[in-house]
Amino acid sequence: MEIKKNEAETAIRHFSTWESFWGRPGHGAPLPECKKQRLDRLLYPKLPPIGVH
Question: Structure pTM?
């Protein structure tokens, strides 16, 4: 009985910690504001991909 009570308290503490850490429980890390472009397109914008005829 004591073990289940301890596990329940640990679970509550765990979820409250993660909820306060991210601020969005269940959704993981916030998405970045802008999406990054592919590096090969930034460096070589005019070249066709290798292996394409």
Answer: 0.38
